[in-house]
Structure formats: C-alpha cells, structure tokens
Design a protein that fits this description.
This protein is α/β, with parallel strands linked by helices and 213 residues long. The chain folds into two domains: 1-26 and 118-159 and 170-213, 3-Layer(aba) Sandwich (Rossmann fold), CATH 3.40.50.300; 32-117, 3-Layer(aba) Sandwich (Rossmann fold). It is 53% helix and 15% strand. The protein has helices at residues 13-24, 31-44, 53-62, 87-97, 100-114, 126-130, 144-154, 160-174, 194-212; strands spanning 2-6, 27-30, 66-67, 73-75, 78-79, 119-123, 136-141, 185-188. Strands 2-6-1-7-8 form a five-stranded parallel beta sheet, with helices on both faces. Strands 3-4-5 form a three-stranded antiparallel beta sheet, covered by helices on one side. Helix 3 runs parallel beside helix 5. It binds 2'-deoxycytidine-5'-monophosphate. 2'-deoxycytidine-5'-monophosphate (DC) is lined by residues 9, 31-32, 35-36, 93-94, 97, 123-125, 170, 174, 177.
Length: 213
C-alpha cells in the first residue's frame, strides 16, 4: 500500500509521515530530501541553478540519493542529513526543483522506491504525478503564520518574519506542483496535534480497507 502525503512546507508533512510510517511499519520516503540533496550537490559543484536543467538532470541521474535504514541522506558518498536543512538550501531548492529534466529523474527514482512495497511518501506531487494510483492520498494544509512558526522551531537562527517571507516565495514557486489530487483527503493541521493528524489518516486507511472488502 502507498500512502501519499502532499502539501506545502510547514504543514506538518514530515512529522506526520514519519510517525505514521512507524505506526504502520511502512517505509518512509521524503522526496523533498531528494531535491534538497541535489541542490546541495549542485551548489558544491558550483553549477548555475537557474538555467541549465539538462546539466542538473544529468547530475541527478549520475548521483542517486540514498537513504539508510535510520533515515540518513547520502549523495555522492557524503552524509548530508543535516546540511540539507540549511536556509541556503531552503532558498535554492525550488529553483532546482523547477527543471523538468530534474523532475523526470526524481520521478523515476521515486517510482522505483515506491514499487518496493508498503510506504508512506511525502512531497508535493506524489498523489498527482509520482503515485497517482496510491491507495491513500492526503493533502495537508495550514495557516501560513502557523507554518512559519513551525519552521522556526527547526530553524532557530532565523526570525519568524524572514521565514514567513521565505515560505511565501517557496509557495509561489512550488505552486504549480502543489495542487491537491482530486481524490486527496484535505486535512487542515492548523489546530491539530501530530497524533490527531496521524489518527485521522489511520482512520481513513481503516475505512478504505473495509470498503474494499
Ligand atoms: O518538503 P521540503 O521542504 O523538504 O521540499 C523541498 C523543496 O522540494 C520544495 O521547495 C519543493 C520541492 N519538492 C518538489 O518539487 N516535489 C516534491 N515531491 C518534493 C519536494
């Protein structure tokens, strides 16, 4: 079974997806981390990020992102788990993720990983593009001010206003990929605790499984 969890930054995807995967005993796949890893590598190589989609697509193909069992993220032999959460990566990742050559490589790889069995996959285009056949699709959303506040707990060195501006810029550039799938369950997480959201998704899985019997 594939559970697709899409939505904008700060809506709670990572925490919810990780906890849900743990509860279900499913693998957890963070597709945002894959775009972040590629952005980190492209910056290290000093490649222009804005206009050479072909070169970035090649870089992605030559350097598959690897996750270990503990969820650490590797690219080109480096453990970059912490590096990809830096503000400079937050800012540049939408520029890299915009190239269709990059998306094509990522999509292929994500589908391969999804084909390995039960998984909770989080991203922006999982329910619409990567796994349109996913049995369960959820789209998380939240009030922008709350999203900026949540991000601040992960980026204590950056002010909440700067984070809100950054989120707005990212939303704008991610917008085309951020539409919920038509058959996605929308959950507004503004006033919900993580366990409430996880509980709702588990309930959805139960009711769908019952309906399918
Ligand atoms: O969820 P995140 O903040 O780690 O995602 C980082 C960036 O990657 C985000 O700006 C959009 C992009 N992304 C994407 O385009 N498609 C995905 N499936 C996942 C992330």
């Amino acid at each position: 079974m594939i559970v697709a969890i899409d939505g904008p930054a700060g809506a709670g995807k990572s925490t919810v997806a990780r906890r849900l995967a743990e509860r279900l005993g499913f693998r957890y796949l963070d597709t945002g981390a894959m775009y972040r890893a590629l952005t980190w590598l492209a910056m290290r190589e000093g490649l222009p990020l804005g206009d050479d989609g072909i070169r970035l697509g090649e870089l992605a193909r030559d350097n598959p992102v690897v996750f270990d069992a503990a969820g650490r993220v590797f690219i080109a032999g480096s453990d970059i788990t912490a590096n990809i959460r830096q503000a400079r990566i937050d800012q540049m990742v939408p520029v890299v993720a915009r190239h269709h050559e990059v998306r094509e490589v990522m999509r292929e790889r994500q589908r391969e990983l999804a084909a390995q069995g039960n998984a909770v996959i989080e991203g922006r285009d999982i329910g619409t593009v990567v796994a349109p056949g996913a049995e369960i699709k959820v789209y998380l959303q939240a009030d922008p001010a709350i999203r900026a506040r949540r991000r601040q707990s992960e980026r204590p060195d950056i002010g909440v206003d700067a984070l809100a501006t950054d989120l707005r810029a990212r939303d704008e550039s991610d917008r085309v990929r951020m539409q919920p799938a038509e058959d996605a369950e929308l959950i507004d997480t503004t006033d919900l605790e993580v366990d409430d959201v996880v509980g709702r998704i588990e309930e959805l899985i139960r009711s769908r499984s019952l309906a399918a019997q």
